Structures are given as C-alpha cells and as structure tokens.
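Exercise 7. Predict the structure of DUF3825 domain-containing protein from Coralloluteibacterium thermophilum.
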Amino acid sequence: MPVPKDEIQDALGTSLTNEVVARLRRTVHVPRPLLETLQRSALSENWGNDLYVLEKYLAVHFAWSIEQDAYTTTDTQLIVTAGHLQTRYGTPLYLVLERNNQPNRQPLYCVHVGSDISAPSLPTPPELPVPSSIPRGGEIVMLHEHILQDNADRVPFLERTPPVSQMCAVSGAIQWSINRDLQLPYWYFGRMNYLVPLYMQSREDITLAPDLIAPVQVNPENMIVRTVLLPHMPYANARVSVKRHDQLPHWMLNAWNASAATVSSNQIDNPEPAQSAG
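Solution. The predicted structure, encoded as tokens:
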C-alpha cells in the first residue's frame, strides 16, 4: 500500500465538517484533466460550475471508502471506486492513486481514472450510510422561531402570517410528507439526515416541486428542523446520498438544472447558512 490508512485518515481530518472538498484536496491531488475525464466517462449529469459538485461527491465517497476499507492495493497503488459512478454501459469507474513524491503536498496523487483498470482485484463502492429511522409520533422541533422570518424571501405567501402559525404550517407540511414517505436521504456535516419536501400551497400533484424543503435531523425522540431551503439548494448533498442521480425526484433534478449555473462553491459546501438566533 503506497500510503498507510492512518496517514490518509490523518490527512482527511475530522468527518464533522461541510468543507469536504478542502478535505479531499489536502489528501489527494486529482489533476483537473482527470476530473474532466471522469465527468465525460460517467453517465451524463449536471455537476455545476467547475465540476464542484463532482468534487464534493468524490470527497464524501473517498472518505467512506477509506473508513469502510472499500479499496484494494498493490505495492505502489491504492484503488477506489469513483463512488457509485458508472459508464453508460454500467461499468464501474475507478481512481488509481499513488504516493505523491512532491514534498509538502498531499500524500496521494491520482494517476488514472476510468473503467479500464488492470489490477489483481478491484474494489466495490462504499456502502451508503442509512439515516436513523424517523420516530413514530416524534415531536417536530424548530431550531428557532425565526426559521421562516430569516428566509422571508422564500415564503412570500406567509408574509402576513404570525410566527406561531408559520411554525405550525411548516410542522404540518413536514408531517404530511413523512406520512407519505416523501422524505429523501441527505448527507450533512458528516452524517445522514433527511430532506422533507414542504407542499404548503398545493398538494394536488406531488411530482411538482414543493414550495420549500426542510432539512431534518432525526433524534431518538424528536426531529430537529434547522432551516428551510429552496428546491435546488440541497442538491449536492442529496446527490451524495444516492447511487444514481436519477434516483432523486424529477422536481429536484429540474430545479437543479435550472439553477446550477448560479450556485457558488460556498453554497454547495454548505446549503444551510447560519441563521440568526433572534
């Protein structure tokens, strides 16, 4: 093995972070031409400006591969899958990594990406972590009472609604969607959570985009709602959480495709910017 596992984990640092692209970049140097090769080799999807969503996807899945020992090695190379990415023919895609001999740089250097890997054995993709089960009858707790006031531009239809009524409207919309199993897996700050679509103006057609999305953290006895987001905002974190992009709802894919060109790397790093506490 070109670099010991503990050295890789030391370079990665804590998993409790949203800055996972920086985490990958200080551990593995992936030359830009190889990142572009990976994008062209995989099934076509929208990876946003500068392929930053692809880097985020690789960052999370690379860390999972190391944590789960989902890699193979030779004397000089470490091989991981490119998450669950595949070619249009269904062939897995791989990253081939070697020790970086440049001083004071990342410990690993990507020398090849693709499906045409020659090695005694090839790895399997890491397992996607499963979010905690939603507690039956669990209380829905708003992180703070300004959750909608701080995002008034996202909910103009509630502009004249008192804060308590706003919170009740969000809680009711969350429960309505959970009762219909509309929640989606969602990676955030090192753990799997859920995204819950909020249909607050109309529920006639749930194939259409919801008014908002609520990131929900599941605890043993309750569910914490930190903020509310527009449909395109959590795409990168939702994409990490599924094997194929077409496993996400069409409304999310459509919302992302319509907005991807305007989303910055900072917004992709953290789709849940800090809220005021009042």
